[in-house]
User: Fold this.
Amino acid sequence: MQNVDAEASDSRRITIAEKLLRFANRALSIFAACLMAVLFLYGGYSLWDTWRIYHSAFVDDELMKLKPVKGEDTNPSLQDLQNINADVCAWLTIDDTSIDYPVVRGKDDMEYVNKDVYGNFALSGSVFLRSANQPDFSDPYNLIYGHHMSNGAMFGDVVEFTDEAYFAAHQTGTLYLPEETRAITIFACVETDATDSQIYGYIAEPDTAGLMQQLLAYVQEHAVQYRDVGVTADDSIVALSTCAESATNGRVVLFGKMERRCGRNT
Assistant:
């Protein structure tokens, strides 16, 4: 009799253990399914968010309607842009590239790193003029910053100029200002880093000519691509700076000579 009771007790324990095991397996399966669902949703959101960031880095249709018209004496659409954001100072276009953006100038060089032209938060930021420069581009050396987006948005195409064939095929651009338009002739592309005092140092009076001559000589010496366009220390220079993927603090900087083509000051 005792053996029968013991066997029955053992049987009950086995049955309970089996139920617990089945319950644990079921719970583990549900947890794994939930985890997979969460990971799937997160992955989908990440892809959507990445697409949104990169897509929003291009100029939208409404903003593009305010792009100045090439060949006009003045650019009144920039005044319309300034009504939206008083920090807008120009519109920059490099021919046959994705560089086609309004240019803003903030109170410092961090203001538009993660803020779009409307003043809203945006990881892609804006194309912005160095805060030390004059907003009318009257300085001899004008430095413009933009993020390097891998889809070519913002200043993503600046790094393409390190390639000899690309550099040879893309030589011109335009800077639109409210009262005039300037033609840009690309003459150099330099790979450097964020600590380069020659390129990122501010050039102004009293020794502008000497400093410009020093900068131009430095650019020619260190350029990965260069063409002789007859640039001198008396010319107005624009530089486009973006990050390089190959180095943490790496930078690629594109240099252009600016010449007034039309407007009241021509």
